[in-house]
TrEMBL record:
A Gene Ontology cellular-component term: cytosol
Subunit details: Homotetramer.
Name of this protein: Fructose-1,6-bisphosphatase class 1
Reactions the enzyme catalyzes: beta-D-fructose 1,6-bisphosphate + H2O = beta-D-fructose 6-phosphate + phosphate
Taxon lineage: Bacteria, Pseudomonadati, Pseudomonadota, Betaproteobacteria, Burkholderiales
Alphabetical list of Pfam families matching this protein: FBPase (PF00316), FBPase_C (PF18913)
Organism: Rugamonas brunnea
Length: 333
């Protein structure tokens, strides 16, 4: 098999579609390199003294794990000096991180969830990193949070790394979705899946069922119908999976289909769902749509949502097109 490296892929994409100028290529390669470093830390586990909880909380009021902080630092340090970015934002930082004045500034802005699936770190279950790339607004001065307030449809690139039995990088720049596997001995990313496609139909769903009593009626109805199986209105049996790492759940769905849901519920209406729009839902929605799937908040396309704050939460329904259409229809009906 002829091996195509991430660099070769990016160079050839630029020749083909003109969507990956040198500065964006640098950005993607730097993020990929940072993910390689995170993967190395994750893989060390107790031997690297990276497991367990830090003494801090993030802006979402969640207790931070050591690896949340380590991964955030790795991404910040890797991306600061290259001249390709104007600013960064992260799940683990309350406000945006402008590029320090000692470095040149570029025209892109990077958002990330440095370590997704934190509750799985200490139990050796797959976790990941999610990232989203936006263009800095024309004529932007000192970057502010307002400059980040762009709909997901404006993303120029998005991707995730999954740290599982294999470390993989899944990437879109708006021309399909491709997957690279980390060759751990060589330290290089090798193209292993081209043009990933999510099957439109599925019999597998992913949701945290323990929240069922809090759900809104459309979600309850949808899941009850799935659970009723071949004796219910759907006339067929469905299977369930829930990894509690969005990256790992989405990765499964990209490979064999499925629907992933994290709905809003009746508990706290100021917190519509758990997942964050800017660095979880938007990049995943971009990837899923580029793979032929769909992603909504129950009412509208996630990529059409006009954000109003950096850490805004959003209900998420994504994956196989036909199932996302059913549950979205129940919300609209
Ligand atoms: P994070 O670790 O970045 O805070 O994200 C965790 C998210 C997501 O990855 C996962 O799907 C969900 O939280 C799991 O939620 P439950 O704890 O409700 O299962
Ligand atoms: Mn997350
Ligand atoms: Mn996280």
């Amino acid at each position: 098999m002829k091996r195509i490296s991430l660099t070769q892929y990016l160079v050839e994409e630029q020749r083909l579609h003109n969507t990956i100028p040198a500065e964006l290529r640098l950005l993607i390669e730097v993020v990929a390199r940072a993910c390689k470093t995170i993967s190395h830390s994750v893989g060390k586990g107790a031997l690297g003294e990276v497991l367990g909880t830090a003494e801090t909380e993030n802006v979402q009021g969640e207790v931070q794990k050591k690896l949340d902080i380590i991964s955030n630092e790795i991404l910040l340090e890797a991306n600061e000096w290259g001249g390709h970015l104007a600013a960064m934002a992260s799940e683990e930082m309350e406000s945006i991180h402008p590029i320090p004045n000692r470095y040149p500034k570029g025209e892109y802005m990077l958002l990330f969830d440095p370590l997704d699936g934190s509750s799985n770190i200490d139990v050796n279950v797959s976790i990941g990193t999610i990232f989203s790339v936006l263009k800095a607004p024309e004529g932007m001065g000192e970057p502010t949070e307002a400059d980040f307030m762009q709909a997901g449809s404006k993303q120029v690139a998005a991707g995730y790394a999954v740290y599982g039995p294999q470390t993989m990088l899944v990437l879109t720049t708006g021309h399909g979705v491709n997957c690279f596997t980390l060759d751990r001995e060589m330290g290089s990313w090798v193209l292993t899946q081209r043009d990933m496609q999510i099957p439109a139909k599925t019999k597998e769903f992913a949701i945290n069922m323990s929240n069922m009593r809090h759900w809104h009626p459309p979600v309850k109805r949808y899941v009850e119908e799935l659970l009723a199986g071949d004796t219910g209105p759907r006339g067929t049996n469905f299977n369930m999976r829930w990894i509690a790492s969005m990256v790992a759940d989405v990765h499964r769905i990209l490979n064999r289909g499925g629907i992933f849901m994290y709905p809003a519920d009746l508990r706290d209406t100021s917190m519509p769902g758990k997942l964050r729009l800017m660095y979880e839902a938007n990049p995943m929605a971009f990837i899923v749509e580029q793979a032929g799937g769909a992603a909504t908040d129950g009412k509208q396309r996630i990529l059409d949502i006009e954000p109003h704050k950096l850490h805004q939460r959003v209900p998420v329904f994504l994956g196989s097109r036909d199932e996302v259409a059913v549950v979205t229809g129940y919300h609209q009906g």
